[in-house]
Write a structure and sequence with these properties.
five-stranded mixed beta sheet; Heat Shock Protein 90; binds adenosine-5'-diphosphate; alpha/beta; five-stranded antiparallel beta sheet; Beta-Lactamase
């Protein structure tokens, strides 16, 4: 018979986790052999020493007080649970561990048992996986965007009509690119969700309106399958706190599934029901239904009912898994009821919007929403209150306003930035308004700048001959008539539509640059930069109306020039066009963030259009 104690010790020493017991003061009383291998301390260096010897700062300093607090309050923060923490080896190396702490309650000496697992390798693998995914997302999305963009253009006929057979092939290729993009995006979404990195841009959302929008957005998909989608009843407006785009994704998945599995000429019905605390949205179809044996697996990854079946409808089997994660991240729940051959009802419930007790920090705009700027205006006015007033009047109408108080200042600003219109006060300290305009008309970059005079002497000077040749668009008397000012500015911007805006496109993928140039060539001038360095040089030498930035560049990340753009060219709109999604912090510093392959040619042009004048 083997001695029981010897057996137990042998087991403990051969476990790959380190095992430690400590007393109520944190003093180590027993360790297994693994501790030595994991931490580099011999048994004698640990026994009778404080456990904080194997912890890095700040845990070293804090551990005694944790323990004291537990003994006093009995509040279990880590006891009985596993936690990921950091530990420190004898050689100073800090590494990731998973720690389980149990209270043994045997005696005061061996009061707590700690089981420590070295997870540094696992963490390293996770990090590598995350990096791999981010690389794949960038590497796949960029060429896919090129393919989708070119095929889209060829397909639309703008490059000339194709023979019927070629057109069919191009359509086939286009559709398959869409499928591939769908799969890549779904895979990336799943990864993100698994890594807990699903970032929601929550705002107050009118769910009823969103459901209506989603029906409209998915109507043509359903129509292609000869299925109609309708909203039952006329529900009132219900509000939730949510990420608009992500909820649209949920609705798109449920509606497209319902349509896919409906019979021809079938109908998908949507209902919205609410009580005080919750809102329920149901998507009902009268189609194929889901056999009982598949019910438990419906929300699992890659789960498709019977892959060989008549049900082959395309799809990745990831949709419902993503949908569930999104709903749950919103504090909601999703489920379904289904009768085989009779149809299915998928429904989700979200907590309804509650007025915040305290003023809320305003949430950033959704990822793809661009701030629409009506035009960039430079206001030259030395009277601070009037400058403020003009700025206010213009900002109300979505103009982006820069104010300055002297001719010298105005000249300096105009050297670095371009504007759609400038307003000039005549009487100024130093150089007066008229001589400034004369000077500006002799310089290449301002000779055609539309200028409006806003001055108390406007009418007097207007009738004076000296002003001919200054090409002043309008003369506005003080006190300023807001309507007149706005109309006059809008008018001159409209006329300016003929002027081709200049875009700087910072992108290292040559194919994509070519497609973008082709896509925009009759609307704007596209100047491209392949590296950060080139971009910086161009930004210093030339003025641009818009900057489109890729994130991954050969010599750094496009985000590196954001601080430069934000400080020196604060009014130049920026679009991030990248293979990876962008953090909230960055989204707040740019005008729009678009993800490659997720936007169509039209959406891209639309976003650019909302930020600058397009022909
Ligand atoms: P995908 O539709 O991309 O394959 P989903 O995760 O959205 O992936 O759906 C998984 C599977 O669940 C589908 O392949 C289909 O077999 C089944 N399913 C989903 N919705 C319905 C529905 N409304 N009616 C019948 N089957 C459905």
């Amino acid at each position: 018979m083997i001695n029981n104690e010897a057996l137990l010790n042998a087991i403990l020493d051969n476990i790959s986790d380190a095992i430690v017991t400590i007393d109520e003061h944190g003093i180590i009383h027993a360790v297994n052999k693994t501790v030595e291998a994991m931490f580099g301390y011999s048994e004698s260096e640990l026994i009778n020493h404080n456990i904080n010897i194997i912890m890095p700062s700040p845990y070293t300093e804090l551990h005694d007080s944790y323990l004291a607090r537990y003994l006093k309050t009995k509040q279990k923060r880590i006891i009985g649970k596993s936690r990921e923490l950091e530990a420190q080896r004898k050689n100073g190396e800090v590494f990731k561990i998973e720690l389980f702490v149990h209270e043994l309650g045997l005696n005061k000496e061996d009061r707590f048992l700690g089981i420590i697992r070295d997870i540094s390798e696992r963490k390293q693998m996770e990090q590598m996986k995350a990096e791999f995914i981010s690389t794949v997302s960038h590497e796949l999305r960029t060429p896919l965007t090129s393919i989708k963009g070119s095929l889209g253009m060829v397909n639309s006929g703008v490059l000339g009509e194709l023979p019927e057979k070629a057109k069919r092939m191009v359509t086939l290729a286009h559709n398959n690119t869409e499928r591939l993009i769908l799969l890549v995006n779904d895979l990336l979404d799943v990864e993100k969700i698994q890594a807990g990195k699903i970032d929601l841009q929550v705002v107050k959302v009118n769910l009823t309106e969103l459901v209506r929008d989603s029906i409209e957005a998915n109507q043509s998909y359903a129509n292609n399958l000869q299925v109609s989608v309708i909203l039952l009843g006329s529900p009132e407006d219900y509000f939730v706190e949510a990420d608009n785009n992500r909820l649209m994704q949920v609705m798109a998945n449920l509606i497209s599934n319902a349509a896919k599995y409906s019979p021809k000429n079938g109908q998908v019905e949507i209902t919205i029901q609410a009580d005080k605390n919750f809102i329920k949205v149901s998507v009902i179809d009268y189609g194929l239904g889901i056999p009982k044996e598949y019910h438990a697996k419906m929300f699992q990854k890659f789960s498709q009912v019977d892959s060989s079946d008549t049900r082959k409808k395309g799809g990745t089997g990831l949709g419902l898994n993503i949908t569930k994660a999104i709903v749950e991240h919103h504090g909601g729940q999703i489920n379904f009821e289904s009768e085989y051959q009779q149809g299915s009802t998928f429904f989700f419930v979200l907590p309804s919007w509650q007025e915040p007790a305290k003023p809320k920090i305003t949430s950033p705009e959704p990822l793809s929403a661009a701030k629409k700027v009506a035009g960039k205006i430079l206001v030259l006015e030395d009277e601070p209150d009037i400058a403020k007033l003009i700025a206010l009047m213009l900002e109300q109408e979505s103009f982006l306003v820069t104010t300055c108080s002297s001719a010298e200042q105005a000249k300096e600003i105009l050297l670095n930035e371009s504007f759609d219109v400038m307003t000039v006060d005549l009487r100024l300290p130093g150089q007066d308004g008229l001589s400034l305009i004369k000077e500006l008309r002799h310089q290449e970059h301002t000779q055609d700048l539309p200028i409006i005079i806003v001055s108390a002497e406007a009418n007097n000077v207007k009738n004076n001959n000296i002003t001919s040749g200054l090409r002043v668009i309008d003369w506005i008397e003080k006190p300023i008539d807001q309507q007149h000012l706005i109309e006059s500015i809008s008018e001159s911007i409209k006329k300016e539509g003929d002027y081709a805006s200049k875009i700087l496109y910072v992108e290292d993928d040559k194919d994509l640059t070519q497609i973008m140039t082709l896509l925009l060539e009759d609307k704007v001038t596209v100047v491209s930069a392949n590296t950060l360095q080139q971009a910086k040089k161009l930004l210093q030498d030339e003025t641009f109306d818009l900057v489109i930035l890729d994130v991954g560049l050969p010599d750094g990340t496009g985000l590196d020039i954001l601080p430069f753009l934000n400080t020196h060219l604060s009014t130049t709109p920026i679009i991030i066009f990248s293979g990876e999604s962008i953090t909230e912090d960055v989204v707040n510093r740019v005008d729009a963030a678009l993800i490659k392959s997720k936007v169509s040619n039209n959406e891209l042009v639309g976003t650019i259009k909302s930020l600058i004048n397009l022909k």
